[in-house]
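Deviations from the work plan: none for this task. Representative record:
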Amino acid sequence: MKTKYVSVTLLDQPEPSHPLIIEAAEVIRHGGIVALPTETVYGLAADATSTEAVERIFKAKGRPADNPLIVHISDRAQLEGWVEPPGAFVESLMDRFWPGPLTIVLPLQGHHISPLVTAGLQTVAVRMPDHPVALSIIQAAGRPLAAPSANSSGHPSPTKAEHVKQDLDGKIDMIVDGGSCGVGLESTVIAVHEGQIEWLRPGMITIEHMVNAGFIKKQPYFTTMEHTDQTRPRSPGMKYKHYAPQGLMTIVRGQEEQQVMDWIQKEVEHTKEQQITVGVLTFTEHANFFNADLVVSYGSVKEPEQWARQLYDSIRAFDLAHIERIYVEACSDQGVGHAVLNRLLKASQYHIIEV
Ligand code: TXA
Ligand code: MG
């Protein structure tokens, strides 16, 4: 299959009437699959009401069929008829955080959404992305769109159109390039039970945000997020290995920054002696300290939002350079750092060393 590649910059004012937006929407309306930018990561979108179309997403990504997809809407009126009417608490979460990087798992209703989307569950994950290209394509398509991240299963999520190309060229109908994603990590996923929030995947919307906005009184435990290898996880995606680079990744953490850096550089030298290519993922301020085959920075020590934005691009850089061992200077787990560290831990398969 030939993948059509188009570019829609924000300067083009990507309204639903823009010719390229109409073209992408038409591909989707005819059962095709289209990679499009959202504020978090690129998504691979299909008509959520068409089983044939959704099947093509699973095939292109090599995604296990028991891992359900998020349904994307551009307008809350589109929820009508396939989720149970959300109560006041959920409505107020939508008021506060949509459009934005918050996915809410809601009780499913009827048969409008393909059962492949929900992997047969009685719930459906929904979000309204905060990106003009995504919103316009959903609106022009006139239906809810199922869209997982537009990467091959097991690879880091794509934050640039070129990442999508690396993974899915020739396997999907169209790529709409809208530049780099602003957030860089997948949305926060929550479920709500009688006014209580269950955290399923950490992201840019943090517990602190919810506390500050008055949605939760105190920090709950992260039980469902941290136990990734349960046999029946609450969110099926949690049991799969994710975001893995080809090289063996080790996260290094410690009280003293300098101690961590010294430890990593010593390991780098050991590794080089064994004729193994070695890389370091660190902060901008520390990059000059290291002497390795590839040193990549994922942002300033002081800017957690940069870590989120640059993480996946950095991990892909090690793959492109065929680096066999990667040492990562761990970031703080505060605020957005919690989500970044969660993805780093998964990428390293929980290979973490405290020094
Ligand atoms: O930011 C994002 O969320 C991106 C963009 C494209 O919107 N999408 C994304 O989709 O990350 P995906 O498929 O890579 O991750 C969806 C996650 C998985 O962990 C899945 O298990 C969970 O959402 N999920 C989907 N439906 C669910 C449900 N009914 N109950 C619990 N978890 C669900
Ligand atoms: Mg994904």
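The CA atoms of residues 198 and 283 lie 32 Å apart.
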